[in-house]
């Protein structure tokens, strides 16, 4: 690559880091890329690190030693996330979102890349310190959320199917009890989709009682995999007891009355810290 002016180099380095989260990049990579001395690259990285932290974009970690380098960890401050979620709660609380059977319509929100981008960044921030191999979700509405989260964690996505597909080869299937209607349903995962003993983060768009997530947790046992966390976009606060106890939610549906067309949505347990709520 041709030698750039420092201002141009800073812009290009920033973009390079943003598109490679959770990836260790040796200083020699930048030095060779820009035909610059490592000392100059180190000075540039110090500037980028300061801007990342001031603007709440994340952390730039420096690893010392021969095999060292820098690693960008996307993180968004809870105070900033809270303001975004509050606005999203207002949007979710629109009366016309109530569907027959007391379901809430969220497909338009799940289909907006800009919103999923922010939500994925929040989950990536919440689970940044955990050793994770893959992000798992169940088809279909959780897929955009899983990909948004995985992009910031730089991880592959594993999709659990409602039924086994011939195009995916042999699969492991289990029966689980749906938490909402107590019906026995089936989910399956192709054997080639995930290595055994993987460390897994489960994300889902909505959790009522938690039957679907519990089913995915049971499916992990068939792969001797380890659950490293559960992230839920919206949880139902009307359920007395969830089947899943340890999880992070970004929004909580507290009230929904089909007759009066009233919905109440508040920030989830990720923001339960009183200091954050008052900021």
From TrEMBL:
Keywords: DNA-binding, Transcription, Transcription regulation
GO biological process: negative regulation of DNA-templated transcription; negative regulation of purine nucleobase metabolic process
Pfam family, one: Pribosyltran
Record keyword DNA damage present: no
Gene Ontology molecular-function annotations: DNA binding
CDD domains linked: PRTases_typeI
Domain Bacterial purine repressor N-terminal: 5-74
Phosphoribosyltransferase domain location: 108-250
Keyword Transcription regulation included in the entry's annotation: yes
Subunit structure, as described in the record: Homodimer.
Family: Belongs to the purine/pyrimidine phosphoribosyltransferase family. PurR subfamily.
NCBIfam families, per database record: purR_Bsub
Name of the featured protein: Pur operon repressor
Record lineage: Bacteria, Bacillati, Bacillota, Bacilli, Bacillales
């Amino acid at each position: 690559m041709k030698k750039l002016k420092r201002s141009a180099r800073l812009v290009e380095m920033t973009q390079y880091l943003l598109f490679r989260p959770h990836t260790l990049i040796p200083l020699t990579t930048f030095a060779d890329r820009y035909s610059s001395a490592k000392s100059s690259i180190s000075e540039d990285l110090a500037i980028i690190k300061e801007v990342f932290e001031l603007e709440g974009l994340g952390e730039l970690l420096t690893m010392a030693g021969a095999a060292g380098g820098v690693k960008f960890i996307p993180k968004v401050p809870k105070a900033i996330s809270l303001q975004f979620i509050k606005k999203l709660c207002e949007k979710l609380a629109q009366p016309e979102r109530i569907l027959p059977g007391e379901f809430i319509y969220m497909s338009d929100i799940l289909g907006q890349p800009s919103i999923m981008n922010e939500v994925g960044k929040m989950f990536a921030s919440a689970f940044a310190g955990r050793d994770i191999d893959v992000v798992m979700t169940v088809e279909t509405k959780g897929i955009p959320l899983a990909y948004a989260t995985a992009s910031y964690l730089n991880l592959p996505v594993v999709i659990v199917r409602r039924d086994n597909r011939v195009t995916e080869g042999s699969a492991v299937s289990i029966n689980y009890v749906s938490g909402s209607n107590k019906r026995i349903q089936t989910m399956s995962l192709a054997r080639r989709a995930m290595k055994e003993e993987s460390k897994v983060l489960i994300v889902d768009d909505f959790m009522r009682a938690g039957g679907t997530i519990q089913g995915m947790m049971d499916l992990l046992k068939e792969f001797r995999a380890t659950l490293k966390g559960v992230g839920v976009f919206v949880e139902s606060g009307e359920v007395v007891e969830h089947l899943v106890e340890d999880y992070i939610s970004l929004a909580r549906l507290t009230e929904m009355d089909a007759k009066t067309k009233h919905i109440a949505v508040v920030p989830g347990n990720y923001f339960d810290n009183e200091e954050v709520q008052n900021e």
